[in-house]
Amino acid sequence: MPGLQLRGVAKSFRNTEVLAGVDLDVGPREFIAFLGPSGSGKSTLLRIIAGLEVADAGEVTLDDRRIDGLPPGQRGVAMVFQHYALYPHMTVRENMAFGLRNARVPGPEIDRLVADAARVLEIDSLLDRKPAQLSGGQRQRVAIGRAIVKSPRLFLLDEPLSNLDAALRLRTRVELAQLRERVEAAFIMVTHDQAEAMTLADRIVVFNDRRIQQVAAPMEIYARPANKFVAQFVGSPAMSIIPATLADGGELASVTLGDGTRIDTNVPRASLPPGQCLELGLRPEHVRVAGHDATARATVNLVERLGDRSLVYARLEDGLQVTAEADGTTAAKVGDTVGLRIDGAAAHLFGPDGTGYHRAAAA
Amino acid sequence: MSAGAQRRWQGLLFVAPFLLLYCTILIYPLLKGAWLSLYRVDLFGGGTFVGLGNYDRLFADPVFWRSMANTILVTLMIVPPLTIIALALALALNRATRGAAILRGVFFSSAVLSVTIVTLIWRFVLAPDTGLLGELWTAAGWTPLPFLSDESLVLPAIAVTSIWWSVGFPMLLFLAGLQQIPRDMYEAAALDGAGSWTTFTKVTLPSLKRTTILVVMLQTAAQLQLFGQSQLLTAGGPSGASRTAVLFLFESAFGRWELGYASAAAEVLFLLIMVVTLTQYALTGRPGADDAR
What number is the ipTM of this complex? Predict the structure, then answer.
């Protein structure tokens, strides 16, 4: 089976378990983002794939070849490090050629590969400079170039954009997206920036607490989070989670909030676990500050004006926190009581164990 | 006073304490030495100006030339092996284990000993009849070698003593240099398929370039002033085979009380050290010019 397969990968540092039995399949040309908070094990997993850490258990297979026993240089993977890790005493050309030299690629072939990669990355004019003479963005390109020339089957990117300033980060993000179109390889990128993950990846792997929480396409992760952690970690600002009680009704579940507000969701009642205690998940864009057609009332704690829209952090009448959206020109201010219109059809429900339940997938 | 001039005066005030000390204990003796070297002067009386007379005499003095040759020879015997051994020790002990920490202390401990103790220890090692090496030679059925009384063995013996004494500090410098090398550089090299020898020669050594230059320059300047070991182990003997330049000027100044003559020798040695150091500096390029990360 082509691509990368992980089976039962586990890792502990001393007595601290950082990865517990991870399984994952990555397609041959897929772009995967590992997303999760610090310490969730995502970087460790990347380093295990690279061969920089040894897993305590499990198998790593790349294009039908088991690689977890091989040294890093023989795995057919290339890595772009967070701090670039360029060799400071070598020129850009030597940096890019180093891996090929070690692989005993003939000299003329090395020259051709380096020249090709340099042209693609527009660093031809920098080939004879040393890393100290380059800007951060240029170093980043050299680091990518060093990975490309080896024609790996899998690129591993360890927070590749985190050292760039905001403007450069956006540009490099676009360039990474273009790069993956040109290169016959799979990509795995570790990031804790969900915008990077959402825009670049075919699928996102959300990590937390030593485990994979969900593997799905970006919009799926956003629209149908597997559990409360994913729901709150992805999306900014985070989804509001409010305790709710299942109410009587038809095929689709309705819930009542602590202040008595009734919300009709589109979640099939049959899919829910037994019991009445649930939690209601609401993204800010599904809670609008409204005048006459409000379904709930709340007191404003904080207003963030973003220009095109405003975020209103408010407290419902029973004291629970909810984040709502308003027009950019809203007059709401701290201490005001505002009406909220909750879009129940877009709401999510979470069971007592945190599992997410969503409206039926569009057929 | 203009604002600029005032700023300059304020700046000068800040460096004044250091400058004063520097002038008193470095610049003044240097100039005084140069001035003394132009006089025939002893410890007890005033001097007579002799111009370059002391230098004339010095350059015609075979004992001086021999001491200079000995100095250069012993420096060449010490600095390269010392640098390599210090680097090897640093590489071996650059790990965070308890054993390595203890051994780092052990190898550095010789550096805190005074030269008197060091030469005493090495006397016990080198003495042909009762010394450690003598015993070993005897046990092996060979005639013990007279390390300290053979003209061709005495400089190597002093070199070994000096290396043993001086290895701690360069080792520490190399350890500090090794710890400056970021771990991800080694990881990048591993992903680039570099073996351990390639990693050492292409990543570790180039990263230690500045440290190596520093160690070689410091040790060259220090060993050109080698004195205690040859004074205490052999008193320059046998027949001047281990007399170093500093020992020569010590004997001239405090044995024969010829201060002017000794000063002239000191000036020549000073010039030699300066030329050697500047040459090393020029040959190795400005340290750190190209390998800032």
Answer: 0.84
